[in-house]
């Protein structure tokens, strides 16, 4: 029986007595999954099959205190939003003082050289975007860094995302008067100070407690776009309240199996001033991220946890994401969205020229992305898809705002994407690594990228974003040959 002793008397709540930590552990099994979060006991048994990350991650914390793992990646209202009231069994009884809470996974240092240094000292050591990754690898817990770093399977797609930009070479023009460089551009109808932006990327609080709040504030300071992720650690309102006076935020969504939940989310975002949306469509299953899996196994061994052999994490979280609405096609998805809003919509996860053409057909904007190489191993890079669009349906660039992400680490990469026809260029991991140093880190990352984009454009002989085009670049093979416009002569 669950008990809670208060001043020597057993207290009852909702016909059940409140469980102690020891009883939470004893009662938890696959049949009943009790988890402690922020001092309360939750029965997640009926939620296992609908959890966005799959049941295995919940079962990993069955009978344990999951607060430290929960807080960095969930907004404050997520429990009330997704769980019925009866799932909350009330505050955990702490009368059994000999039963210590088991919290987040063991925090193994990701580097032996992770010595404490002052933030200013670390910032001075950062010269380029890749330096932020090195700092993050030394500063963050191994689990957090692995979450950001990991890609699907052998991570070849992650590598290809970066290497594909190197296939593109510049064709600079000289003896051109260039006094200033204008980076202002429009992305989905809103003017921003730079063509690059902060991608929606979950788990920002794993990098720093301020998470997406710091990303929003840094973006507002510089007048760049922060495209907020659906699985941010803050509520829509908290981030909207953190905006600068003239700042505009966009919101990313997944179409959940209960479409009414997503519809409510979109309407609330609109009421709070979010001015565009991205529907992510490349994550109906979770890619197998072996870097994460191996670290989880190592942590469980160190903690003495005996995981079940059929636990999905033993072979990677590859089960179907049951929370994603499975029946959409192009017409039904866009029709559903257009019944809710007439604001600009990007379809995130476009990986073929055919789907880019369908975006054009249905009046939405193609976001060329393979989810940072975290989903399908062997997926094409944004460069691959940009080149294919030029070959097969270049009209897309005239009728849509083409957005890209994946493998961007240099200002020169951003300029190449713009010359290939992109209107907005997103960076995800780069800003998460920078966030390891808080808002100051994000601020410096933005300044580094802005400086390098300006320098690249000046050396290329271009003074404004609108002047860029395919004539300023060349691909490395005949197959990738681009149309040669003479408009800049």
Automatic annotation (TrEMBL):
Q: Please name the InterPro entries in this protein's record.
A: Aldolase_TIM, Cyt_B5-like_heme/steroid-bd, Cyt_B5-like_heme/steroid_sf, Cyt_B5_heme-BS, FMN-dep_DH, FMN_HAD, FMN_hydac_DH_AS
* Stretches assigned to the Cytochrome b5 heme-binding domain: 16-93
* Key word Heme present: yes
- Name the coenzymes or cofactors required: FMN
Where does the record place the FMN hydroxy acid dehydrogenase domain? 121-478
Q: What does the UniProt keyword field contain? A: Heme, Iron, Metal-binding, Oxidoreductase
Instruction: Tell me any Pfam family this protein matches.
Output: Cyt-b5
Q: Does the keyword Kinase apply?
A: no
Q: Which molecular function GO terms apply here?
A: heme binding; metal ion binding; oxidoreductase activity
Similarity section: Belongs to the cytochrome b5 family.
Q: What is this protein called?
A: Putative integral membrane protein
Provenance organism? Aspergillus niger
The organism's taxonomy opens as: Eukaryota, Fungi, Dikarya, Ascomycota, Pezizomycotina
